[in-house]
């Protein structure tokens, strides 16, 4: 039976609700199999969906973009290490004071949540993701949940002292709605912190290699994401506007460069660049497979040729490429007005 409008309209208390057809009336003895049905849904989420030899999450059918297999998890963890170096190993920049509840949206392998659990031992860190790829041995104050942040949240309002998101650009379809929920569920006086990367890479003026293929890859990747209804672009202005629109105040913006490759002079940045290069060499194909072959109509061979050129460029020490990284945080006022 398809869902009619009356199925989803709330009915005032005291009035009769429509009687829905039940599964048992359709001849399926579903209740007899409840356990196996639950097990089967759970195991299909745990199993994921396979395409081009890569595994994707099976949470929302057809809406997977980037893999969640071990190769992708390695990419995420190496990228995390490179970003941490650039950010001076700070877990968060927002001046949170003795937080009790922290939420990490799109936790990936859970590495930030685990670090936050250690940095804030008095807090409970709830970390959610579409993919069940988090470790089971974690600090006792960290809990992982498989959940879609774009659905209605069931936590109580005003709960979190800090809501954190890292590198979620390219993942969220409705940012306004997400930030409205973030605002509602942030404690008055609490913070939201976004740690985002713009996926249009930059070749800095000192570069002797123009990075033509790298820039083409970024551009094409962005266009393909657009066809999938997602944007890989972000900026401090955009993030600030998102937060102000829903009611956050005192927005602070910090900007960093994340080098790709060991081209910077400073040892610390060279290390960050090496790690970032390694994460890209590991993960570039996973980032592109679905976008290029499904949304942009490229053949696998065409994609492999482009990626080979990008790898050669990024490995050239004369190619001075980097990703722009933005930290944007804002506070929910002590006496908040809720955005309309
Ligand atoms: C690029 S990864 C970033 C992971 C982690 N924040 C980090 O920086 O290492 C994006 C993560 O967000 C998750 N994700 C995407 N959309 C989501 C949603 N609507 N709700 C929850 N998680 C989501 C993906 O499954 C993926 O693990």
Explain the overall architecture.
This protein is α/β, with parallel strands linked by helices and 340 residues long. It has a single domain, classed as 3-Layer(aba) Sandwich (Rossmann fold), CATH 3.40.50.150. Helices cover 37% and strands 19% of the residues. It has nine helices and ten strands. The strands form two sheets. Strands 3, 4, 5, 6, 7, 8, 9 and 10 form an eight-stranded mixed sheet that branches. A two-stranded antiparallel ribbon has the order 1-2. The longest helix is centred in the C-terminal third of the chain and has 29 residues, at 267-295. It is globular. Residues 1-15 have low confidence and may be disordered. The site of S-adenosylmethionine has 19 residues, from α3 and β4. S-adenosylmethionine (SAM) binds next to α3 and β4. GO terms for molecular function: methyltransferase activity. Keywords: Methyltransferase, Transferase. Residues 1-37 are annotated as: Disordered. It comes from Lophiotrema nucula.
């Amino acid at each position: 039976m398809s869902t009619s409008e009356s199925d989803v309209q709330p009915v005032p208390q005291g009035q009769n609700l429509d009687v829905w057809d039940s599964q048992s009336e359709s001849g399926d003895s579903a209740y007899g199999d409840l356990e196996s049905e639950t097990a089967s849904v759970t195991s299909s989420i745990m199993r994921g969906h396979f395409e081009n030899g890569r595994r994707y999450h099976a949470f929302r059918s057809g809406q997977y973009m980037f893999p969640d297999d071990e190769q992708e998890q390695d990419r995420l963890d190496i990228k995390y290490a490179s970003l941490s170096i650039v950010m001076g190993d700070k877990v968060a920049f927002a001046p949170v004071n003795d937080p009790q509840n922290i939420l990490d949206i799109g936790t990936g392998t859970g590495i930030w949540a685990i670090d936050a659990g250690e940095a804030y031992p008095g807090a409970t860190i709830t970390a959610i993701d579409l993919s069940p790829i988090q470790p089971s041995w974690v600090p006792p104050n960290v809990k992982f949940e498989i959940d879609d942040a774009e659905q209605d949240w069931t936590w109580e309002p005003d709960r979190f002292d800090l809501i954190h998101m890292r590198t979620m650009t390219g993942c969220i379809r409705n940012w306004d709605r997400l930030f409205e929920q973030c605002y509602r569920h942030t404690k008055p006086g609490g913070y939201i912190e976004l740690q985002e990367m713009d996926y249009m890479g930059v070749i800095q003026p000192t570069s002797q290699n123009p990075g033509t293929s790298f820039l083409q890859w970024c551009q094409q990747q962005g266009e393909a994401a657009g066809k999938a209804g997602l944007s890989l672009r972000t900026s401090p202005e955009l993030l600030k506007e998102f937060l102000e629109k829903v009611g956050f105040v005192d927005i602070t913006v910090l900007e960093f460069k994340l080098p790709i490759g060991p081209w910077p002079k400073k040892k610390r940045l060279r290390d960050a660049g090496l790690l970032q290069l390694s994460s890209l060499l590991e993960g570039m194909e996973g980032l592109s497979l679905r976008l290029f072959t499904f949304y942009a109509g490229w053949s696998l061979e065409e994609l492999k040729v482009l990626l080979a050129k990008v790898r050669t460029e990024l490995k050239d020490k004369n190619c001075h490429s980097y990703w722009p990284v933005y930290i944007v945080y804002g506070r929910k006022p002590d006496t908040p007005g809720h955005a309309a």
